[in-house]
Structure formats: C-alpha cells, structure tokens
Design a protein that fits this description.
By secondary structure, the chain is an alpha/beta fold. It has twelve helices and 16 strands. The chain starts with a helix and ends with a strand. About 40% of the residues are buried.
C-alpha cells in the first residue's frame, strides 16, 4: 500500500445516532443464559442461543417498551471468553463500551452451577461501576432450585432475582425492577423511516460499513471470517431521518454450513433480508462474483426487495473502470439487472452517505402507486408489440391490469389463459414498465388471473 493510502483519513459524513434511550446492559460470564434472557425480555428471538460458549460477540440491542417507559436492552459477549486473541480483545472492548454507556446493568449468573471463578471476576469488575446492578439468578426452572440462589449473596449485589429465561418465570418482576431504576425523564424515539439490511459473503466489509454509519465501533471488525454471528440492528440519523441498519452474518456455501451456529447465522441473514425495506448487497471489488453471491442475489430477487449493489473496497481495485465492472456484474447477476450500483470505501466513508440516499430513492420507488389508466396503456402497448407465444391453439389476451400493493409494486393482470403468461413474459412486461413508470430500479411482482366469464 502506498504512503498516501496509509495516511488516508475517513471522509466525514453528517450522520448521527439520533435521540438516545437509557441503555440496560446484560452481562456475565459465558453460557449463563444472557442471550436467552435478552430474547425473553425482548419477546422475540434476536440473539443466537447455543450451548457453545462465546456465541454473542457484538453488542446486540433492541428497544423495549414497558409500562410507558422505553429503554434499549443490550446483550453482550461473555466476560472471560477464551477465543482467538484478536476476537477476545475486541469482545472485551465491546463489553466495556456497553457497561460504560449503560444506565443499569443486569448481572446474570447460573443457579445450577453456583459461583465459579469467572463469576467472581465479573463481580470484581462491576463492583467499581457507579451504576445500579441487578443480580439475576438464571435457570431457576423449578421451585427446588430456589434455595440455591442464596449462595450468590457473596457476590455483594444483594438478593438475586430468580429468573427462568427458558420458561419466562421472573420476566415481569425483572422488567419492573429495571423500569423503577430508569431515569425519570422518558424519551421516545421516532419510528425508523427505513430499514437497510447489509448483506454479503464473509469478510466483504459489512461490519465496517455499519460502524461508519453508526459513527462508533458497534460491530467487531476482523480479518477472521465469520466474526459476526447475530443480525444486529443499529439506528442512525441522516438528513433528519431515522434509519435502522441491519448487519448480518456473512453467508457461505450451504455445503460449508457446519454446526448450529452457521445454520442460525444463515437463517438470521435471510430473515434480515425479509424484514428490510432495502437491501445493500455488498461485493468486494477485488474478488470475482462467487456462487455464494449469485445465490444471495437470487434470494433477494425472490423476495422482491429493492437492492443496491454496493461495490466495496473500490479504492483498492486496480485497473478497472466503473463501466467495465458494471458490465461484468450485470452478466453474472442478471436477475438484479435493474439494481443500481454504488462504488464505496466503507473503511474511509467514501460515497457512503450517497449510498444511503440511493437506497432512499429505491424505497420511494417501491412505495409508488401509479394511475390505473397509465398502467393499462403501457401494458397494452407492450402486449401489442410482443404478445405471448400461443400454445395448443390458444392465443393470449390481456383484458385489464391494476396495482394492488406497494413494496413491492404488485400488479394483478386479468387475462384469458394465465398459463401462457410465464416468468419470461413477466420479465418482459417488467422491463417495459420500468422504462415508462417511476419504479425503474426495483422489482415488480405480477399475478396473472383468469377473467371470470359471465
């Protein structure tokens, strides 16, 4: 790398995290059930839960509303995690950030195992924190285990609260204690204008982009593939609008998915695509389009999601022009031929704000409704220019079309023989409509229905 690249500084972009809520950090040693408790309090499965120690690495957060009060619940990695040296140090850094920012700390222990040395290690770290600490004895799954929580008085945080994250026992009492300790000034945050799922194969720069948007190190960035395992929602504000960026685990070949962690990560990535308004599909400018990229692009297309093809590390790509690369990409991802391209450097912030603005344009396109008269005019012109092929003596005919939904724009077209109007013909109509209507860069969904006679 030349000296100029070494000394290059990130491009400043006017992004903020928006109004903040009080944060409640869930901490403890590995495998005490922090993520299970986090999911139970949230009322849905967000963090990956697995018997393997150290599954949670990044700060995973979600907004909780209870009895008129709002707070951000933050799941953290296990303190004392034994992992790759680089990862361990960064997980510890994320835990420190969570503790530093928290208004309240929930210290989770395992009633079945009693106090172990790592519990004392966690307690010692929290003893010097000048914040309320709620001690939670998890895995109290039966009344017979209730007396065993008495041992945890020795940790110095008062009487432990009995909880069973598995069964949901103690959830209400814990929420009551948390909200009683929250600051009186309540602050609610605006609903996000748009949700952006950041997807791609492993090590393409997704977490770096998220950190650039968040303006802080929310996600662990490492050259070690597979660092991110959960899908993590990060709020940020741009030009007065609130967005949520969803960082997703890196996707790899299905035959390479070994064990439950990779399976859950893959499911999280696919789920994030489904709940996103727009997908930022990241590719590494230095690498060829892979089978993983093709399968991921096909899934985005199957879900009819607006998509920006984000070409990361463009600053490191040598000997390529944008036009040449676009031609290459279109030939390898033909099902996303309508998706616009954005060339960025996530590390330095180059073109990142512009990429969000482009995603916003796609969101507006996908939300567009068109006049029925204009829609029918274009479809009938397209039909006259190129009707579907006849089969068994049947000639196709289009009677009427109407838009029934947005996000994606969904069209119902009444015809005489629906079987004549196959996927190829739907693609033909979509291309004709994109050239004339204000959704030129998003997926269109078609339903061909037989017009009832009489």
């Amino acid at each position: 790398m030349v000296e100029a690249e070494k000394n290059k500084q990130p491009t400043p972009i006017e992004i903020s995290s928006g109004p903040t809520l009080p944060e409640v950090a869930v901490v403890g040693r590995p495998n005490v059930g922090k993520s299970s408790l986090f999911n139970r309090l949230a009322g849905r499965r967000i963090s990956i839960v697995d018997p393997t120690s150290g599954v949670t690495r990044d700060r995973v957060s979600t907004e909780i509303k209870y009895r008129g009060k709002c707070f951000e619940l933050v799941d953290t990695g296990g303190m004392g995690l034994m992992d790759v040296e680089e990862i361990r140090a960064r997980v510890e850094h994320q835990i420190e950030l969570a503790i530093e920012r928290a208004a309240i700390i929930v210290f989770v222990v395992d009633v079945r195992e009693g106090i172990v040395p790592l519990d004392n290690f966690v307690a010692e770290r929290l003893r010097h924190v000048k914040k309320p600490v709620i001690l939670v004895a998890n895995k109290v799954d039966s009344l017979s285990l209730e007396p065993q929580k008495g041992e945890f008085y020795k940790l110095g945080f008062g009487e432990p609260l009995s909880v069973s994250a598995l069964q949901g026992e103690g959830r209400t009492q814990l929420l009551e204690e948390i909200t009683a300790l929250l600051p009186r000034a309540e602050e609610t945050r605006a609903e996000p204008y748009m949700r952006l799922a950041v997807v791609g194969k492993r090590n393409v720069g997704k977490s770096t982009l998220i950190n650039t948007l968040a303006r802080e190190e929310r996600m662990i960035v490492s050259e070690i593939p597979g660092t991110t395992r959960d899908s993590v929602d990060i709020r940020f504000e741009l030009d007065g609008k609130v967005f949520v960026a969803i960082d997703t685990p890196g996707v790899r070949k299905r035959r390479s998915v070994e064990g439950t962690l990779d399976f859950y990560s893959l499911e999280r990535a696919m789920g994030s695509i489904r709940r996103a308004d727009v997908v930022l599909f990241m590719l590494d400018a230095r690498e060829e389009v892979s089978q993983v990229d093709k399968k991921l692009g096909a899934y985005i297309n199957e879900e009819y999601k607006p998509c920006v093809l984000v070409i990361n590390k463009w600053d490191l790509a040598k000997g390529h022009e944008p036009e040449e690369y676009e031609e290459y990409l279109r030939s390898h991802l033909p099902f996303l031929s309508h998706a616009p391209l954005s060339f960025i450097s996530a590390k330095y912030g180059d073109n990142v704000a512009e990429t969000v603005a482009l995603a916003e344009e796609l969101f507006e396109q996908s939300s567009t409704r068109v006049a029925t008269s204009e829609l029918n005019r274009i479809i009938h012109d397209a039909f006259s220019a190129h009707p579907p092929k006849s089969k068994a003596g049947k000639q196709g005919k289009i009677y009427f079309a109407t838009q029934v939904e947005v996000s994606p724009p969904t069209l119902v077209i009444f015809v005489n023989y629906p079987e004549l109007f196959d996927d190829n013909y739907a693609r033909y109509l979509a291309n004709r409509l994109r050239t004339s209507l204000p959704f030129s860069e998003v997926s269109l969904k078609f339903y061909f229905r037989m017009r009832r006679r009489g």
